[in-house]
Amino acid sequence: MLELSDLEVTHQRSAAVARALADAKRLCVLQCLGEGELSVRDLSERVGCHVPNMSQHLAVLRNSGLVLTRRDGNVIYYRLADTRILEACRLLQSISG
Fold it and tell me: What residues contact residue 16 under an 8 Å CB cut-off, 6+ apart?
C-alpha cells in the first residue's frame, strides 16, 4: 500500500480547508462564529439559510476541521476550532478586493 508523505498529507488538508472556505454562506458562518458559539438554528437565522442547508454547510466546516461542536440536550452548538480562521477569512476578502 502506498503511503502519503507528510507534505502530501499537509497539501490534502490544506485543499480540504480551501474547499470549505469556497462558499459565501460558509464564510458568513465563520464570521458569525467569530462572535462566539451558536446553535444551528441561531446560525440559520443570522446567515439567512434554512436549517437543513445550514446543517450541510456545518458538516463541511466540521469535516475540514474549521469548527467544533458541543451538544446540550437536543441542541448542537458550533464554535471556531481556531481563531486564526478569521484571519484567513480577512485575507481572502482582502485579496478578492
Answer: 63, 64, 65
Radius of gyration of the chain (CA): 14
Question: From CA 88, how far away is CA 21, in angstroms rounded?
Answer: 9
Angle between helices 84-96 and 24-33 (to 10 degrees): 140
* CB within 8 Å of 62: residues ≥ 6 apart: 68, 69, 78
Average pLDDT in the chain: 93
Residue whose C-alpha cell reads 462572535 in the numeric block: 35
Question: Which domains does the chain show, CATH number per domain?
Answer: 24-88 (1.10.10.10)
What's the confidence (pLDDT) of residue 7? 87
Residue 47 has pLDDT above 80, yes or no: yes
